[in-house]
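Forum: Protein Structure Q&A
Topic: Joint prediction for protein chains with partners

I've read a bunch of threads here and the consensus seems to be that you should model interacting components together rather than docking separate models afterwards. I'd like to see that in practice. Below is the full input, 758 residues plus whatever partners are listed. Could one of the regulars post the assembled result?
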Amino acid sequence: MELNNPVSTNNNQHVHRDDVGARIGMWLFLFTELLLFGGMFLVYAVYRMKYPDQFHLSAMEMNTTIGTLNTIILLTSSLTMVLSIAAIQKKNKFLSVVFVSTTLILGFMFLIDKYFEWSHEIHNGNYPGSEVLLNKKNGEILFFGLYYAMTGLHGLHVIIGMIVLSFMLVFLLRDKITFDNYVKLENAGLYWHLVDIIWIFLFPLFYLIQ
Amino acid sequence: MANGTIALAEKSFYQEGTTKRKTGLFSWIFSTDHKRIGILYLTSVTFFFVCGVILGELMRLELIAPGPTIVNAETYNRFFTLHGVIMIFLFIIPGIPAVFGNFFLPIQIGAKDVAFPRLNLLSWWLYVIGAVFALTSLYLPGGPADTGWTFYIPYSIRTGTNVSYTLMAAFILGFSSILTGLNFITTVHRMRAPGMSFFKMPLNIWALYATGWVQVVATPVIGITMLLIIIERTFGVGIFDPALGGDPILYQHMFWIYSHPAVYIMILPAMGVVSEIIATFSRRTIFGYKAVAYSSLAIAFFGYLVWAHHMFVSGLSETAAIVFSFLTFIVAIPSAIKVFNWVATMYKGSIDPRTPFLWVMAFIFLFSIGGLTGLVLGSLATDVHLHDTYFVVGHFHFVMFGGTGTIFFAALHYWFPKMFGKMYNEKIAKIGVGLFFIAFLTLYFPMFLLGYNGMPRRYFDYLPQFHTLHFISTMGAWLMFIALSIVIGNLLYALKKGKKAPANPWGGVTLEWHIPSPPPLENFEEIPNVTHEPYDFSQLEGMEYGTE
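Posted by a regular:
Agreed with the consensus. Here's the joint model:
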């Protein structure tokens, strides 16, 4: 992501920094991400209206414990994200590095949970194209189709977020992010919160409609 | 408009770059200078335009007589799919904003560059990667997609051709388009020169600004839709496939939620360019500046709410159909406001009918026909009769090629001296535009008659009664090929042998005419302080202008 300061690298090395501009750009980008997931939520809404009972039935097979655990993990990671920004604002580089690292670890834990959850479903035969699934009713096939597509795309966003945060960690260590120039970290944080907020909607839609 | 911005004896952006390497290919493809990126886009967009034209010519040749002529039916299906994908995703959508927007948006608002120059370069790279995806499908087993550019379900899931590659191409190109839009919006908000309030911006900027919003708001929806089909094809996940309970109509909705606003991504920047050219060559401030500016936003807004008029025969509920039909008529109002204001601007103006102006005249005529036939399709009763016929093909080509395509050439002729510092031969250019106009009507007008008489679109063969009109249309296609060759050839010749262009050949007053041709790397020696209205031609006193 190059959504950081606009820097015109010309012969004069005239560096133009515009934090507000960088934030506007990031918010616009987040808006497009919301619409991207919005399209999937639309598909979900239509099919749930069409097959309410079968969606209900399929949701019974979801593991609410793991889902809740993941919600807690992601929410906590958002907290550590905010704390890392607060730390750098108070010139505490060490603490900021610690909190970004904690966020990364929590993101990783989320993915491990997801891995076990998906393996469990696949073990039960609920994967696209499997005989178990194809013998089920249409609404159930669609529920699982959407489950994999939506949590899969969300998982991809978690991975992208972690890559961005790893860069932020390097920037912090190399003093590219400082107490008076932290818009990069702020924007990375915004992205992380987006990933979090999408999960907050995915969680009830797949786990809590039993 | 600006005070003392002419800088003499400065190096142009061709001599001075942003990269470490001073010359060669790398100084271009890694340059973050908005002007170089604009020219990169111009090169790639023109290349794909020529590809699309060749495919179109082959299709017209196939249709010269009933029955198989040069290709078989499957190849024909691939031709029209590829023609559509190339022309829409690789030519018309990036055409005006990515080429002329990149080059002139920062200059017209008095900035040194866009807000995110590196992101801008990334957009071009994504464009290239998307194009590579679209072309790879040609050489892989299975061949290019044969679904039409609309990728309707369930055929796009069942066909054995490389639909996924084409979809991936559209996804990546969409991402490129989003980044351009995001960049432009931020630039307009943050980088305007002192004194350049929103209502002192040239109308081109208003149009690009509105386009940026449509790009940001609409494109992600097609992104996710394309992605879902790819997932569905690759992993057999049930989402749209009716065999697994999916709803193909839902796919159509999602497709058109983007693809209808997309036609405003295509036409809005063209309308911006028209306002510039008409003002300059009429030597008059644009009539109803605010109305034209707001109508851009209105088109962007209402254009978002009319998508289902593509689906009147898909089994939409009657209420929905009536609402969408009504909204479709509403969009015609801001478009008409623009056309009337352009014509009113010319009234009592001091008109100088140079080549760019003639292209704009061709645009107003062709686009009006395109727009009015759009209303025929937007009203429910007539649409049932004309749906999926050549009438739609005719309408679409009148608004897209007659509208955006024509203005692409108008903009090229208007800004060519500024971009390349060379003048082209006006006599040949005028012959080119005249021939283009005749060729256009010969090529596309018969399509309205064909469609009205029941010739369905996308058919490889037809009944003998349609022969004459198809034959005329193919003749028009050949004429079009000659016209385009003259136009492009003339510009290429000018690039090599053209006379040196002055800073202000047409007597324009927006900021780009206050700086040398071609502009220096940083555009302005110092950021101008804007005191004039955008089309205040009193500035021409004391300014050197004209081609002599």
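The mean pLDDT of chain B is 93.
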